[in-house]
Amino acid sequence: MMEMREGKEGKEAPPRSSQQKNIMKGVAIASALTALGLWGLAAYVWFLQDGRMPAFLLFIFGLVMAGLGWYTFGKLQSPDPLSFKNEMRQDGYSTSLINRRTGNARELFIPYSSMKEILLAKTARYRVNADQRPGDYWIGASLVMKWTDKGGRLQFALFQEDDPARLKEWLTIYRQHGIPVYASDEYIGTMPAEEYKHCYGQIAKHTYEENLDGHVGYSETNPPRMWRRQLKTARTEKLAAVNGVRKWGYFALLAVNGLAGWLWIPDWHIETVGDTFVETSWILAFFAANILMFILFGGYWRKSSGWYRPLLDSFLVLAAQSAGLVIALAGTDKLSLIWNALIVDGVAFAAYLTGAYLFTRFVLSRWL
After folding, report:
1. pLDDT at position 50, please?
2. How far apart are alpha carbons 51 and 176 in whole angstroms?
């Protein structure tokens, strides 16, 4: 959700907060250190343990973490790319989009004569308290402007306002120019203006009565339920594309585990000690790399990620590794011994992955 603050002539989007910068620094440093550690471990396994396949896998995982760190560092070093300014003039509404990197500015001016109606909805912005008390949600206004361009085509424009006094002033100006103003109790998020062409009619609304009491300018402890439209739009298609990348990354991760079961696990050095066994492979390093990749591609920080995800992922990893193992050792006496070791390590991996899931889902997700 785009937060705005007052500028000299209107409103301007603020730069990144110190909290956001600290999180980005933490991610960049952690990714870089993890990549260095994985590469160092890969070199040790390659030259001193003669483990070519595990070293190659560790190197690949290190490349992924280095790429994540490089991308985050680049974002941190670059200036906040966009600045927004909203201004109410005597002849209409003006909004400017300024690219701080290139210095290019783009302005959209909408005269009052082109405005068809204004919808006053709600928006919620999470606020973090300086002390250790839980944060809250500040309720502001999300205004949707319905207008027509010079070609007579229907368009929409959006802006947000947290100050009730300033909001009432703007709404009064609209009504003075004969523009109908409607209100809605729905909480609207950051849906692009272009998408309102498809779903604006789905928003429940009523005539604005010039009373903002209980509509904006107060806080709530619990997160409000955001309005959701049913139509598939450009934003949902973009999210689908991102999810598609994550899905293929997830399948690639399972494929890597299958290759490990075929090319690396059969070469585990296992020593039997009484009724137990000790395997001296680099399984813990492989555990760590697998966990990092499942957090990245499995979306463990998302609220929609169910409690069963680490158990399902652990089962799929074991199945992929087992398939590769059977291909490599089918019909040999070594299959049973390696299989027993793989089952024990699979249970241990499930425990590690569950712990990583709980930490990511309930602790780390608060900072993402």
Report:
1. 65
2. 78
